[in-house]
Amino acid sequence: AGRIVAAETVASSEVAPGIVLPHTRVAGLRHAVLVLGVASAGIAFPHATAPVRLIFLLVSPLERPDEHLRHLARIARLAASREGLGRVVARAAPGTPLPWTDALHDR
What is the pTM assigned to this prediction? Predict the structure, then answer.
């Protein structure tokens, strides 16, 4: 967590106004983990150009940097799609896991 916070103080992980994608890689992790945070009122985020309403937090295995980059690209494409974002937010419920196949895996 400290690496992510430190990185955000240096540069923004904003992928679109109101959407950030902080990310890191961790040794020994078996699979990538993606967490979605939704702040309907928006929150101040370091270096963001607008109040942040969606936070995609990606943690990937250190040993698979190519996979990490593919996940980042897929999430960025999702963030650029109003339709895709709408589907994700509509399915989001506090404490309920979502199937992230749309964001992390090709169909």
Answer: 0.80
